[in-house]
Design brief:
With 359 residues, the chain is of the alpha+beta class. The chain has nine helices and 20 strands. Strands 1-2-6-3-7-18 form a six-stranded mixed sheet, sandwiched between helices. Strands 11-12-14-9-15 form a five-stranded antiparallel sheet, covered by helices on one side. Strand 19 and strand 20 form a beta hairpin. The two termini are 24 Å apart. Bound molecules: zinc ion. Zinc ion binds next to helix 3. The site of zinc ion (ZN) has 4 residues, from helix 3.
């Protein structure tokens, strides 16, 4: 089981699939899903949706398994290396791509070896890493399962049961250019106006379940010019949807008032990337995943995270999903790695999940 799974994982990470450029990888997956006994097709957005018939059981409810097919950057030219310590790392200055291709390799292996399984639907989304774009465009009419597992948590010993509302706020401040030495009074300093607005924002931890941040600022062209433009990117999150919405409104109101008081103009784009959702700690997917992980020696606990995954979208669309670990470490960095032993445990836990779901 291990050699075949590891070989497939290595083959997958060698196929570049940075967000937005997943086409070749999805084509490869279509073939692999068919070889594993599934029927697969791409939806209109290029997400892969597959179904596998039940095995060794009758009348069991279908379950959904989901992963994402894209990777973060730098993810071009990945060369995986299996070390003598049993850990797979990237050989060069790239990520490894275990997030989320280890999940896909584990799912495919479990599908190949499980003696018993309910009907299984598999969805592999595009562009997860850049704001869940793929799953938001997923053709949900092709899915029939009402519950399942997103294989996209790093550590095996936690099961994600929810995440916050996340709102992105893009601000463009427009002032007026002028020579900084000869006629500064003719200018309106966009950087100063933006700075004044940012200084007036409540940032950091707002309360026990809400945060706000300004993460990027850009402006100005030359030292000796009053800058006409400055942009900054802010965000806020809360486990309580209403709080996140109120916080975003407070932030936009503050920015607008401060920028205008500085005499500059402002354009603000507010984008709700994802909506808070929390499934119960004793929800079926959590109970089943906990039991299955226990059989491979992992005591998993449910956690609510401050980030978001495709599961936020599935849960808001009425498919109850827990996020289960794949064993990857240091995701989103060139230090990303995964132990073969953890891949084996994740795949074995999936086989057990299938057995429990087929009961
Ligand atoms: Zn991921």
């Amino acid at each position: 089981m291990s050699q075949r799974m590891v070989g497939q994982f290595m083959a997958m990470v060698r196929i570049d699939s940075e967000s937005g450029d997943e086409g070749r990888f999805m084509e490869y997956l279509l073939g692999e899903v068919a070889a594993a006994g599934g029927e697969a097709a791409l939806d209109g957005y290029g997400n892969l949706i597959a179904s596998f018939p039940a095995k060794g059981c009758k009348g069991a409810e279908p379950i959904l398994l989901s992963c994402h097919g894209d990777t973060v950057k730098p993810g071009v030219g990945i060369e995986p290396v299996l070390g003598e310590d049993g850990v797979i790392r990237s050989a060069g200055e790239t990520i490894l791509g275990a997030d989320d291709k280890a999940g896909i390799a584990e799912v495919l292996e479990a599908l190949r070896v499980a003696p018993v399984r309910p009907p299984i639907e598999l969805a592999v989304s595009r562009q997860e890493e850049v704001g869940l774009l793929g799953v938001k465009a997923l053709d949900f009419s092709r899915l029939h399962a009402r519950r399942g597992f997103l294989m996209d948590n790093d550590t095996l010993d936690t099961i994600v049961i929810g995440g916050p509302t996340y709102i992105a706020i893009d601000v463009t401040v427009t002032g007026r250019a002028a020579h900084a030495g000869m006629e500064p009074e003719k200018g309106i300093n966009a950087i100063a106006a933006a700075a004044r607005a940012i200084a007036a924002l409540r940032l950091g931890r707002i309360d026990h379940e809400s945060t706000a941040n300004v993460g990027v600022i850009n402006g100005g062209l030359i030292r000796n010019g009053v800058p006409a433009s400055c942009t900054f990117l802010a965000e806020c999150r809360s486990a309580d949807h209403a709080k996140a919405v109120a916080l975003a409104e407070e932030m936009t109101r503050t920015v607008r008032a401060e920028v205008e008081a500085a005499g500059a103009g402002v354009a603000i784009v507010v984008d709700e990337k994802c909506r808070a959702v929390r499934i119960p700690e004793d929800a079926w997917p959590v109970r089943v995943a906990t039991r299955a992980l226990a059989t491979v020696g992992v005591a998993a606990t449910p956690v609510f995270i401050t980030g978001f995954t495709d599961a936020s979208i599935y849960n808001n669309r009425g498919i109850e999903m827990a996020v289960v670990g794949i064993g990857a470490q240091h995701e989103h960095s060139t230090e990303e790695c995964i132990a073969v032993a953890d891949m084996e445990r994740a795949a074995a836990a999936l086989v057990e999940i299938f057995r429990l779901a087929a009961e």
